[in-house]
Write a structure and sequence with these properties.
Layout lengths: L21 E4 L6 H11 L4 E4 L9 E5 L5 E5 L21 E2 L5 H16 L3 H21 L1
Parallel strand pairs: 1-2, 2-5
Antiparallel strand pairs: 3-4
Helix pairs in contact: 2-3
């Protein structure tokens, strides 16, 4: 079975295609959320931050073999048109590989650095520096 992903050509509302996107992952991220992260990563639309994911790309279902045994049987294979493969067994490797416990702070810091690099107002630059420093201090406390 072939699995196709698509989006509508027209969606009401403003598109935010020029906004940075960060997707957080952990080792327990599996299946559909991996597909979301993998697809956005391959489209170079998002920065994946966190741990390598679980590696479940083949949809399927559980079948009872007996009262004591069940079996998962894959019924399809997802193929990304860019990579011509998927994340089955390997997981999604983050762009920024870091412990999931600090992935949010790292993503926030990266987003603020992008904003900092686009800012010219000295007062705003100072404010952003202070926020980035607080996040860095928070990360050190967590670790």
């Amino acid at each position: 079975m072939q699995v196709l992903y698509w989006t509508y050509r027209y969606l009401p509302g403003k598109r935010l295609t020029d906004q940075p996107v960060f997707v957080l992952t952990s080792s327990s991220t599996f299946s559909a959320p991996e597909g979301f992260a993998y697809t956005l990563q391959q489209l170079e639309r998002a920065t994946i931050v966190g741990e390598q994911t679980g590696g479940g790309a083949h949809p399927g279902g559980i079948h009872r073999l007996s009262e004591d045994f069940i079996m998962f049987v894959a019924s399809a294979r997802v193929i990304n048109p860019i990579t011509e493969t998927n994340w089955e067994g390997t997981g999604v490797v983050p762009n920024i590989e870091i412990d999931a416990g600090v992935a949010l702070e790292i993503a926030q810091k990266e987003a603020l650095k992008l904003l900092y690099n686009k800012t010219e107002d000295p007062d705003r630059l100072n404010e952003l520096e202070q926020i980035i420093t607080r996040i860095e201090n928070n990360i050190h406390e967590i670790n």
